[in-house]
Design brief:
The chain contains 33 helices and 26 strands. The protein is α/β, with parallel strands linked by helices. The chain folds into 4 domains: about 230 residues, Hypothetical protein af1432; about 240 residues, P-loop containing nucleotide triphosphate hydrolases (Rossmann fold); about 170 residues, P-loop containing nucleotide triphosphate hydrolases (Rossmann fold, 3-Layer(aba) Sandwich); about 80 residues, no CATH class. Helix 30 runs antiparallel to helix 31. It is globular.
């Protein structure tokens, strides 16, 4: 067989595929200009390393076993796929090791030069799976069965053919040496991959995150280059789609609010104070804070700052950064996406194409377009999951489980973070036990990949030290801004109160103030449902009652949030919710009740009260501590005692607290959390990061605590949902790529009707055959209340 007869994919020659992937890896690495000088790795050596893994990653496809499998009939394809001899990853990895080793000969040996061949081996071995713990990657090379399969594969490759394919691409004599010294290469890899050898290398690197960042960057390049070429997806970035003055132009639109109210004056002060710094900023400073009160225009300010900084970096460094806007909650993504979409299209009649503005989370619509092309679903998903857009709006889950992951699918977009500007909105949502972890990883990303971070919140956690210059505050007069606000006062009721008594007090308060809107935020779904039902049972005239929880379908939640924000209705609103409404949902009420919670959560709920600073009005926030019939506090179902105890400590002895005092309270609270928290969990994860224990990292790191197993339920709340469910059942009868592609076409609509509930509460609703539960229209009366959502039949406490 000649090189023209060896294929990587049907209708794609191996030599063409590896050349395309190598070119992508090498060129993208050079363009990104990463800096790994701290481990003595030069930019040229790294680019050469990435190029070699691109060339070598599919070497094993040259076996006659794989070629037979690739062109097999349908009858034999499945059987051949299961054969170890048709798998190409391990043989390709061994070949990669040898080629990188030969390329490194004669180089000045830095801290990791001798380790690079094994890194290349591990990356290529796992390019069709997930990353494994590095010290496990070579253990099976000593097993007889593994060596026999590898030897059979080697004998099934024509040396002359691969020599022709690889001529001029890899170091001379690589092919000859590989065939003649194969067994000794296996032994060498096994020694290099021993726990002792890997630990000795990594312990000589002081920085815990450097090697993890290097590996994820290179791995993501290989994954993206491989998948995109295999799918024949090409993409040129839309470099002119985000002018730096977009927000300025948006603010000049006739319908943009231009009142000279005190709060608008403060918004303008903050806006100009922040963006006026862009021309003189030190571009070596890459971690910023925007810490200003709620309702002062953080979104527009951060977007304008990022666009102007992006423009300056482009002009001065020749690199065009992507902007990645991360939010902690799904409930606020659509809101922010709409705002930013309006900014981008402020002087245009068309919505931005997806290559300009992308919304990415697990429920987002699978659609990708440029100004002249709509991508089919399978290619669209590749572009979306690779963050091939200029401005990406996504979740904390997507971001943090990309930078701390072993998962192939999550890591593929990692290289897009090089030189990116990342806005982390509502950063107080980052769990305190991960502060040190995020500190080290984000410092590493900003150092090695030149990623810029903007931490944005009204309650800034003490993750970085402003005094030492780790983080720079953009709101230069932030203390003055906080002192200017007295929109609300917080009343702390220290005596615990049974839920039944609270219910009665609340109804009396609502009746006594018929012109006031109320928001009641509770810690469990059960308590929220009970309070809501008590209002409905004793309704007050001219009042609209709205219930929110995660056990309401996403479609209904969005409709109810829209109803809350609709100011055309003359009826006052009473909103009962779990804490999903805390941050970012842009609503404005007169009076807020909040069950006991950590101080940052209390602050976020307070930000929904008198948000727009109505004149001659002071919003009221009342903090209560509710307990059940067994005198257990409801906050214990949700929050750690550690955080609540610190909250109670800073609030002790304070009856009524003005908003202008919040900044001092927040500082005291976060200082207490930082001083007294333990770092055991973070140190365990950092050990996994430093020693490249990727599968253990995946097990230990969970941004959202999941204390009990959940199951997804599809709820047929209307006729459209009934039709979608029937489509889903029909799709389940399909197989392979057909089923995946068909589901992508209904994915967004499908998840509009899906809720997650405790598995123990779902009972017979769970269908193990299709791995999802289902509430039919006939079962709605039993399992789903039209007002309060999912209704378990066995009682117990429901969490958010």
């Amino acid at each position: 067989m000649s090189s023209c007869e060896i294929y990587s994919h049907p209708e794609k020659l191996l030599q063409d595929h590896i050349s395309a992937v190598a070119n992508f890896c090498g060129t993208t690495c050079r363009d990104a200009q990463p800096d790994f000088s701290s481990v003595d790795l030069s930019a040229d050596t790294l680019a050469e390393f990435c190029t070699i893994i691109g060339y070598c990653h599919d070497f094993g496809k040259a076996t006659s076993f794989f070629q037979e499998y690739l062109f097999a009939s349908e009858d034999t394809h499945a059987a051949l796929k299961g054969s170890p001899k048709t798998r190409h990853g391990l043989l390709s990895a061994v070949f990669t090791y040898q080629c990188i080793k030969l390329a490194m000969i004669g180089r000045t040996h830095g801290k990791i030069d001798a380790f690079l061949p094994f890194v290349g081996y591990a990356i290529v071995r796992r390019h069709h799976g997930d990353l494994n713990d590095f010290f496990l990657e070579a253990k099976d090379l000593g097993e007889t069965a593994t060596k026999e399969v590898l030897t059979q594969q080697l004998n099934a490759i024509r040396k002359e053919t691969v020599s022709e394919i690889y001529r001029g691409k890899i170091p001379e004599n690589s092919i000859e040496t590989f065939f003649s010294e194969f067994e000794s290469i296996l032994e060498e890899i096994k020694k290099e991959g021993s726990l002792f050898k890997i630990r000795r290398t990594l312990d000589n690197i002081p920085e815990a995150t450097a090697m993890e960042i290097l590996i994820l960057f290179c791995y993501s390049l290989l994954l993206s280059g491989d998948k995109q070429d295999a799918a024949e997806v090409s993409h040129q970035r839309n470099r002119d789609g985000l002018p730096p003055d977009l927000v300025d132009r948006y603010q000049q639109q006739p319908d943009f609010p231009k009142s000279i109210s005190p709060i608008n004056q403060i918004r303008n002060e903050i806006y100009h104070e922040v963006i006026d710094q862009v021309p003189t900023l030190d571009l070596g400073q890459r971690i910023y804070s925007l810490n200003v009160p709620t309702g002062t225009g953080k979104t527009l300010t951060s977007v304008s700052f990022s666009l102007k900084l992006r423009d300056r970096i482009t002009r001065e460094r020749g690199i065009i950064p992507r902007i990645v806007y991360c939010l902690p909650f799904m409930s606020i993504i659509d809101q922010n996406f709409n705002v930013i979409s309006n900014v981008i299209t402020s002087d245009s009649l068309t919505s931005p194409s997806t290559d300009i503005l992308l919304k990415h989370h697990h429920l987002a619509d699978v659609f990708y377009s440029t100004h002249d092309e709509d991508y089919p679903d399978n290619k669209a998903q590749l572009m979306i999951e690779g963050w091939q857009s200029e401005f990406i709006i996504t979740t904390f889950i997507q971001f943090f489980h990309t930078i701390l992951s072993s998962k192939n699918r999550a890591i593929r977009k990692y290289y897009s973070l090089a030189n990116a500007i990342v806005i982390l909105d509502e950063v107080q949502s980052i769990p305190h036990e991960y502060w040190k972890l995020f500190h080290d990883v984000i410092i590493g990303l900003s150092t090695h990949l030149h990623t810029t971070f903007i931490f944005m919140t009204a309650t800034q956690p003490l993750i970085f030290d402003e005094k030492t210059g780790e983080i720079k505050e953009l709101a230069l007069h932030k203390a003055q801004y906080f002192k200017k606000f007295d929109r609300i006062e917080l009343t702390v009721r220290n005596d615990p109160i049974p839920l039944k008594n609270f219910e009665e007090d609340l109804r009396e308060h609502v009746a006594a103030f018929p012109d006031k809107s109320f928001l009641i935020v509770l810690n469990t779904i059960n308590t929220a449902q009970q309070i809501y039902r008590s209002f409905v049972e004793y309704p007050v005239p001219d009042t609209e009652y709205i219930f929110l929880s995660t056990h309401i379908t996403p479609k209904e939640r969005l409709e109810r949030i829209a109803k809350i924000k609709d100011t055309s209705s003359k009826r006052r609103k009473i909103i009962v919710s779990t804490q999903l409404i805390e941050a970012g949902v842009d609503i404005d009420v007169d009076i807020v009740y909040r069950d006991m919670a950590p101080l940052d959560s209390i602050n976020q709920v307070a930000g929904r009260c008198n948000r727009n600073n109505r004149q001659n009005s002071c919003g009221k926030v009342i903090l209560v501590t509710l307990m059940d019939d067994n005198k257990k506090f409801y906050y214990k179902y949700i929050y750690s005692d550690f955080l609540v105890s610190k909250t109670q400590a800073v609030l002790a002895g304070k009856g009524i607290i003005r908003e202008s005092q919040f900044i001092d309270l927040n500082n005291d609270y976060f200082k207490m959390v930082k001083d007294m928290q333990g770092d055991e969990q973070t140190n365990e994860i950092l050990t996994c990061v430093k020693h490249l224990k990727f599968s253990q990292l995946q097990e230990k790191f969970h941004l959202i605590r999941d204390d009990y197993p959940k199951v997804d339920l599809f709820v047929e709340i209307d006729e459209p949902s009934h039709a979608i469910w029937n489509k889903y059942l029909a799709i389940q009868e399909m197989t392979g790529l057909d089923r995946k592609t068909a589901f992508l076409s209904i994915k967004k609509e499908f998840y509009d009707y899906v809720i997650s509930v405790p598995k123990t509460k779902a009972g017979r609703l769970v269908n193990d055959d299709i791995n999802i539960g289902h509430i039919s229209q006939e079962e709605l009366k039993i399992w789903y209340d039209p007002e309060t959502g999912f209704t378990p039949n066995d009682g117990g406490t429901l969490i958010i």
